[in-house]
Fold each of these.
Amino acid sequence: MRRAELVMALALGVLSAYLMVKSAELPIGWIPREGPGGGAFPFWLSAGMLVCCVLIVLRWVLRQSPVSRSAELYFNPAARGTVMIVIIALTLMIGSIHIIGIYFAIPLFLLYYVRVIGRHNWLLSLGVSISAPVISFFFFEIALHITLPKGYSEPLFYPLYDIFL
Amino acid sequence: MLGFGIALEPLNLALVIFGCALGLFIGAMPGLGSVNGVAILLPMTFLVPPTGAIIFLAAIYYGAMYGGAISSIMLGIPGASTAVATTFDGRPLALAGKADQALITAAGASFIGGTVSVVLFTLFAPPLAEVALAFGSAEEFALMMLAFATFIGLGGDDIPKTLFSICIGLVLSAVGLDIISGEPRLIFGGLPGFFHGINFLVLAIGIYGIGEMLWTIESSSDGVKVSQASFGVGRIVLHLKGLKNTLKTTLMGSLLGYFVGILPAAGATPGSIMAYGMAKTMSKDPDSFGKGNIEGVAAPESANNAASTGSMLPMLTLGIPGSPTTAILLGGMVIWGLEPGPMLFVEHQDFVWALIASLYVANLAAMLINLAFIPAFIAILRTPFTILAPIIFVLCLVGGYAPTQSLHDIWLMLIFGVVGYLMRKLDYPLAPAVLAIVLGPLAETSMRQALIMSDGSLMIFFERPISGTIMGIAIVLFVLPAAKIYRSSIARKNN
Amino acid sequence: MSIVSKKLRNMVIPVAVAVASTLTFSTSAVAEWSPKKPIDFVIMAGKGGGADKMARLMQSVIEKHGLSSKPFVPINKPGGSGAEALLHLKSKKGDNHTVMVTLNSFYTTPLRQPGLGVDISTFTPVGRMAEDTFLLWVNVDSGIENIDQFVAAAKAAGSDWLMAGTGKGQEDQLLTTFLNKAYGLQIKYVPFKGGGRVAKELAGNHCNSTVNNPSEQLGFYEAGKTRPIASFTPNRLPLFPDAPTFRELGKDYVYFMQRSVVGAPGMSDEAAAYYRDVFARVYATDEWQAYMTKKSLMGGFLTGAKLKSYWAREKAIHEVILKDIGEI
């Protein structure tokens, strides 16, 4: 916990500095008779973020905040694996939307989660993974006319559109 | 009375009920709010006469406002910015097995808020339109300061981390186009997805949806916990009776929400946030807020419903939408050949009164439909977590995609979710960031507009009577908590 | 100014293009091609704005009359004064299911942000649906009734005279710059989000004048709160017969907001023909015609090569104006 607090504060400090540099692409000063320039608002607020990070580090040195005194581990060791797996699965799912489209990415993710992580039986796993995209299709594409991304799987849906739209 | 005759015609009544039910489900989906519901259904309304159409859309609007509270309470994910404040106490209540109480209170408070505002609307529409007209950029900025002042106490005990959260929310809100200079700014890596800025929903669903789920997965690793949710008719009655305990908060929230709602550009979000902050400030037990105080559900819910009615006022009388949803409604009226503006109340009285009457009917119908569905919503909470969790992830994904239809936003949402989760583990309060991203653009733009008008003199915020008064109240509210902290730190030292 | 006005004089857009051209399209054999999936209907502006309203009207008309076998799905891409929408369309090269509703930022944004690498001449022309008009407005409380009084009051106020408008470097500011140059004024420009909001600023006396479209000010005008002083059109508008044109007042200046539909670059000819047909029919509907009359819109349906040359001409005009006011 203690080390994580410092690492996070430093990382956010770097982010703040980057945001300051990025904001400075537009005028950050006071334009006479107009008020602050286009970059002023994000620039000075990013500066505020940086100051906060400095304060957080100071409090860390002085051991003032509860987390900076905590001897606990940042990740609960029992859960660390699961959380990492879920994050990786989410990343893979979103990445695969670009290629195989949402209607194939979702069932794969659900199947993996319910069957492998949740250890439910095949029937339930398949039921959940197949019904979710079907319901989404009818709710979004047919009822609300919102098209969801399909990647290269798009032509497969042309017949469905012909039937339902 | 004539209006009720029109609103209660069988076709219109059917439209109200159908619209409310549809709105309820759209609002309950994280990501889809009343804006999407109304926008998507606009063309459908060509099938019915204009009066029926606007009634239908108003019903969807109301239904979605009620529905927003459902995802806030049940999943902890605000479906729309108006329901952010509801998550603060609604979610803890649901986790403590009191989801039914939170849902019923939300429905009851929404109903009261809706009723109060429709009555005010009926009685004082034209004079209030003048008030809305008198509100310029300076007043808007003062109002935003007031909203910030009311939520200053919402953060945790760690002041640098709370301030950090507010600042990062405001900086993220600056991404996209600077309206005043017309220049794009903070376009990271030149990605076109940043041009439209960072949508509030992307941050909110990321933090409250993905981040919250990761948090739950971690904390429940040693045995999956299922929220204990019991339900019965007896409990409905009990909780409905319990509404009178929160009546004071609810009425205050309704009035506050209504008056903020009638101001152009403000909309329902600042109203609900201010009502929450006000309820907390005036409470005898402010520390219980954020941990599952039922007043923390009643205040924002009454306010956002009151405000959504309120925001119809500038739309109808001035032709300026008070919120994105009313902007679409406005478009609808134009399509049907009705000209919103000062003359609408004179030339199309039947339309105006039919709309107002349908607001009453829609409000009642939305509450009843909502109550009827509560058992079904509670049942969802009993689903095993390993099935619920992946479904919520999928809902977040689809809901985050729908408003802007850009995969860029989905990636951002994932990043916000993971980083938010990591920050939350270190006691960074994230609610202030989510609120800041909503209020930030309003505050910045109005401040800079006012300063251009005043040749860069800050006095414009204090010289104008309305703006000066609001600024005064805001400053008092800013100073109070600071003084309190100072006093308590002195007291601690003395001990 | 003089250079601009001279250039403009040669380039003034012919206002009425015969509706007959529309009819030729609808009667010509309907293209063989038809869409295979819902069509992305990109809107270059945010929800609730003028362009958005118009796009949703078109969508509703298409749906009501069943003009397309697959629905048009509106998607708002307001980012960066339309930069996001333009980049999106550019990236859809060769796509047969993406069309976009444009306004004048179609010309100005690529000019102001050359880094985008957007060349509007590569986009597929579908149809110009209308040209929106502009007028100069004041609040009736000011007592100003004609351009001379306006100039006198604005001169006296100097840079304290406030003009509210939408966005920097956009239509309203171009017109404000014209007024400043033509009459030797120092009007200060305050940008707001959306024309409705601008109209309210004037009605609430938070600014001194605006250059709104008729549709934005109509409500306040009918309620007797605001007054048109002069119009930026070649002829007086039927809706405001008392407002002279700037041409009558000796300043030859005409300015329109185009409302046209464009397709992705490299769209197949069959698909382009299909969309041209759909929008030609939309243009001819009673709903669209009624809307045009009511909102004082001008301009006939333009398409194909004519639309392309119209864009080229307008782009050139905007390049001159933007250079003139130092925006590029």
Amino acid sequence: MNRSHQFEIPGSYKKWTIGLIVAGAIAVLYGMIFYHPFTPVVHGAAHGAAHASTDATRFWSVLLQNSVFWLLVVNASMFFICVTTMAMGGWQVALRRVPEAISSVVPIIGTVTFIVLMALIWGGRTDIYHWLDEEAVKNDKLLTWKKAFLNPVFFTIWSAITISLWYLLGKKMRSISLESDRNGPMDYETGKKWIFKNTIWASLFTVFFALTVASTIPWLWLMSIDAHWYSTMYSWYTFASSFVSGMSLVAIFVIYLKNRGELEYVTDEHLHDLGKFMFAFSVFWTYLWYSQYMLIWYANIPEETGYFKIRVQGPYKGIFFFNLIVNFLCPLLILMRRGSKRNFTLVTFMAILIIFGHWIDFYQMVMPGTLKEHSELLPFEFGVACLFIGLIMWGVGRYLSKNSLLARNHPFLKESMIHHT
Amino acid sequence: MAGIKKFVVGCFDDEKVLFPAVKNVRKAGYKIHDVYTPFPVHGLDHALGLRETSLHTAGFIYAVTGTTTALSFIGWVFTKDWPQNIGGKPHFALPAWIPITFETTVLFAAVGMVLTFCYLCQLAPFIKKHHFHERATDDLFVMAIECTDKTNDGDLQAFLQNAGAKEVNVQVAETGWWLGRYDREQKLYREEKGY
């Protein structure tokens, strides 16, 4: 087989991509027309009988949930590349183009996310981010104190820097990888230099990733919905959620390509390791879920329990525990066996289940704070998700059909080919 | 069931020689009792045709036992036997029990698996095991082949010498010490990928 083989997008893939994007676009258009999202709403109006205002809040909440979730998921695959690069991990080289392709979607979804965030911040709305309501902040000791961090200008600047640096640093990592395709086989010295260059950029990305995904970004984008509440676990929790979904997404694409007869050097061993990531980070997610919940439950301090009151005892009770079953019990019991991590069907099923579970997880992070008991889980919510899945499929297909599926001159390629768990 | 058996022992000093030797010995139809190595050799279990160990299944069962033990015991203590008001929490305070449950799960799994492992390897305090070669703990790969009454050990020794063994001898040793000893099921050699 030609070693610079590229992926030819099959017709069914194109059909699904277009279908999902069209379905999603219809959902968003429907929302724009019928949910009146551009009429400014002040916080608290949602409690009234006026249903139109809940609709608008619903529109923006769903967009916020989906754009942030899918952006963090696609960005997680670049984090995966960077940490494995820094750890001098060789096993992932055979499938490395897949996470690369997924991370190439960051600028697309990043732009969408940025537009959504800016619309929320500068659109005269206070129903999503309560801390934008200047009147309320003035009379609120806690929010006045938090103003140094929670203000529109800092939010805008930091979001812009974050998304562009994720894009630029990721792009650099991808271009270093693609550059090796063009330059032909490397001798020992060139290879050493090339790996070192990779390591430098990977560490820059990882440090910035820690400053954003593992700390400030979930605080700004998601935790500030419940502006009075805070949890030091929150960002790690969000990171775990997005990373396990990101690994599941990689697994889905790897299995898809394997089934199309591509990725000849990827074996059950590689899939086994991806399955291990899915398993391990599901457990890690649960660890953070539990640590956050248990401390608040135990201390029972009113300003902390407010966050969980509506989720555990309110209208979100079902979703809250469903979340735990799908994201903890299922991966734990199903992915534990060695055989199941090597089974294409089972890993695909679990990957879809995990991504869905963490989508629901983000749903219950956003909705209770914005919509209170008025949230819905109807075709509109799933339609918006379809838009983002379609965008991911489009971007991944584009990258894989333009570039070689195998990083054929990577010095660690042989290590990956003979990988054995 | 302990039994005295005769073994032909071949010592190899190179992994690259050991693997083809294992393959050829099995191909010739001899039964390899075990290969003793100074460190875990990747893929040797596969080359020997050993079946997948059940140790992890045992571990899972121990872990579930641990979880059940912890939950039922704590549950019984705090709701039936000695209910107390701790910080105004309900008697059935599941979140507070999770850490102990987790630790018990790990403890049961770990201790249970260590003991099972010792049993499977027939190791126990004060049990003296036969060493086929002292240097198996240092720098030699020691292959012990079990002899039946049909085995011609002279032929076998020559065979091992040809396969690259540095040292070949015949030893008589006791194989087990425990009732129902763990006898590895060895598959017959097959011509297929991975062997």
Amino acid sequence: MTAYRVTHRTRYRYAEEVAASYGLAHLLPRDTPGQVCRSARLDVVPTPDLVRERTDFFGNRALHFSLHEPHVELAVTATSVVEVTGTAPDLRVLAQRPWEDVRDTVRAGTDAALLDARTFVLDSPLVRSSARLRDWGATSFRPGRPVVEAVVDLCGRIHHDFTFEPGATDVSTTAEELLDDGRGVCQDFAHLMVGCLRSLGLPARYVSGYLETRPPPGEPRLQGSDVSHAWASIHLPVVGWFDLDPTNDLVVGDQHITTAWGRDYADVTPLKGVIFTDGTTEELAVEVDVVRAAVT
Amino acid sequence: MTTTSTSLLTGYRPRLGVHDEMVTHDGVVREHWRDVTGALELLGPRDLAQRQHEIARQLADDGVSYHVHGRPDSSTRWQLDALPLVVESEEWTRIESGVIQRSELLDLVLADLYGPRDLLQRGLLPPEVVFGHPGFLRAVDGVAVPGPATLVTLAVDLVRDADGGVVVLADRAQSPSGAGYALQNRLVLSRVFPSLYRSLQVHRLAPFFRSLRAALQAAAPAGVDEPRIVILSPGPANETAFEHALLASTLGYSLVEGGDLVAQHGRVWLRTLDQLAPVDVILRRVDAAWCDPLELRGDSQLGVPGLVEAIREGTLAVVNPLGSGVVENPALHAFLPRLATALLGQDLRLPSVRTVWCGESDGLREVTARLDDLVLKPIARGGGPASIVGGNLTAAERSALLARISAHPHRWVGQEYVEVGAVPTFVGGELVPRRSVLRTFAVAREGSFTVMPGGLTRVASDDEPLVANQAGAHSKDTWVLASEPESVAAYWLRPGRSEPVSPTGTMSARAAENLFWLGRYAERAEGLVRLLRVVEERRTDLSSAATADPAGALTLRTLLRTLGQVTGMATLGWDDQPTMLPDDTIRRLMADRSTPGTLAHDLHRLDEAAKVVRDQLSVDTWTVLTALERELDEAPRQRGLADDLLSRGRLGRILTSLLALQGLAAESMIRDPGWRFMDAGRRLERALHVVTLLRTVALDDHGTAADSLLYESVLTASESIVTYRRRYRSRAQLATMLDLLLLDPTNPRSVAHQLDRLTVDLQALPGHPGTGRASAAERPVLDAVTALRLADTARLADLATPDGADRDGAVPSELESLLNTLQQRLRAASDTVGAAHFHHRKPQRGVAIGGVDGSMAEWDGEAT
């Protein structure tokens, strides 16, 4: 088991005074089969008039806040301590089960878990299944191939075929655009993986969280050098959800801290807001620190 | 008369193989239509055409419009056929009971889908039907809906099949429209056929709207006894904006837009003139996805950020609840019979048109095999055609459609083609069968639902096999015959809790601002019309003599310069031919709505402002505004001489309409703050206009002859010439003119009078500091009053005359100083009223942060 302290700071500076600001945050980690969130808090400056936490449709922790004090700066800081066991699901029960079998089982599923899984085959705001994504994914999902082998292969191909390049894309970039351009960030890779799986009829979701980065040997860890992260997950009957990180070609283990999951980025945007102002946002600074903490 | 009369009916040819509402397939008029056909025989085609014309006129007078979808600029007049659809009592009872059952069923389904979702667990409904439909909103999952019903209103579209059976074509649960148009149709048709309507014992519609009021009251959060209820509209450009305003005035609620509301401390508030007033219930005419840019569509400018959170807090009820659109999914039709059995233990009383859902393999198989016999529909509206007739497709289109369907089968349904029944419709002087859809309306009441006895019948505009969705502009009234006379008294005196009066002070700041500008533009237009009339008169009087008489030419030139000042139009070139206004100037004045200063612009802005506050104005206002619009519409079409646009007749008609508006304002409006704003706008504008006239005419010496003509012109343009002549019995002179137009408080056209009225208006506005103290807007007015009181007519006139030796051009005369002061103070007063009362929300922007590299997206109103 590994314990982490995660600090995620977001600071906005506005060109003109903001009269009112409304925010929706998916910044506090949820509990999952592989992690327990020991403590978590969200600090907003200036102090909001209203802060409400709720559990959203997907079981994530969602925070609503609003403030009406005129301001030119807004700082939102999420701090949490999370214990990660990183227990990957036991894949042996699936053994050599062909992926088509999984697809058909899900499609005909009537128990609670599969009814839920079926909804993750459907399109979502940012991920639309298509023949093109299906064909791209089919290289990994050859007829009869065992599902685990196929999905690990898909994850590896995304890692190898695309270039990680911050700034190459934005939140509205589609999986198809990534196929054309070849460059993107973790969110794009996660969307592509989710899109390929869904286009093949398999249930997939988007996971938002953090990844512990380790400095090169002998060098100190730089503060604020971490970033928020995203990966994909596929639902396998009996086994449950199986997380893979296409950005790093990893099966998700004890270095990944899950914040929230949903159909795609739009469901779990870490922080979004609506503001009333005559100007624009002049500066946005995000700092993330993931450090090991003592297990309590 | 009888010779022509029978031709209406004898000439009627029902369509073969199509059920006809009026006649049986043997050609016999159905029993319940006989009173109507009897009346038709008496009328004959010519009289019926006259009634049809009268209907069109009344609809135009009431300003009934329907914007064509996707063309927000186009305002289409609502079309109402002279013949109602007649439904007999017994059949209506069956329809009513079917609609009630369907409402109860969909209410239970909706409550389940956002609650326990037993229907999914029990396998009664596939998850794709729910989660694959854009109407399902995850943001409001599990949020309790206050009040006894989850679904408060429902519209059900009904058609007849070839055998005359009634089948459901579609359910509308998002924010059903049409009930207001049904009411409007009834108002007009009952006025046009008063005796027929009375003799037939037609069910009245008013009780339905009373039920709607009661349902909205009942929908309020627990513990709220006198809920503040508002109607949320996307704004006057919306296709059914007319109806939003009609509902607001019929129900007595404030008509608001997203910008009028603000979420604070877990509540939604209405920005009224002087405070934030809590809102308890919103009857929304904005689709749910657009209601909260924070939690739903981020690109929406029609909603209120924080609205969803207020619903979660339990302080706000929205009707229909957000997310209700999910039960519009036509795929539900395939499951309703078994849902009715499971949830109600009943058979479905009104069948839906037979529907197969492609999300099930059997359904997909059937659709593939029988495509030619079916009508294909996507499960969600928006983008693409709403329905595709399989039999009309070419082989290529067919396979393209099948490919689309098999890519996303759960998004499609196939429906049996219905040979939709027809109803006689008066077209081109004769009766022809037109296919029709009847939209019925249900509203929750006391644990069940009540149905409007009638509805909105829409007819196909031509020989179409289906009634297109956008055919909404062709309609009929629907007459449900009562089996026994209705007692009006019994209805109004129904025992039980008396309905609370809606709280006062709910006028939005936006409504107040529009009333202010309504006043200003009405007055501005009036001032301009009067000036144009004077200019035209002088041109007629002087044109022959103009070249010969220098005083006449100077008078005209000066008046044209005044016109240039008032309209802000360049006067370059006007001087060359002082008897003529350039043609293009006239055309712009009368037809160019987009250039400020033109009459067309003033009238257009007047109309726009009126539309925003439609619910505040009397119905007669629309008769007047329609008449103005007619003049405006004709101007660009007018061929021939541009001069004719300025004909005395046309200007007279426009002036008459503007005066009628004044009369309505004076005699038909309650003196509430809204009226005060309108009157303040009018007073400010009139005072400014007089000052502008005097500045261009009175500051210079044009010689006695020209001055006298000019003063007379200004007095005429200021509607004061009759008083002047009666009082002074002399040629117009500067001192006496100034006395009458500036200082005399008894002259309703004088600046002094406007300032008095303005002061009274400003003191009556909310937030006034109280007797003896001046509000910010009052201060500049007080300055102006003081300047006027200190003025001395003789000195004003003296200094302005050439004999006054002081005038050297550099130092302004006393008159010029006074006029400058007045103008400046009046403008300051206008600005201060705006700053103090008209809230201008800062632009709304959305902010989101990207996942990994902190990339940021920002949008303001653009679709993302």
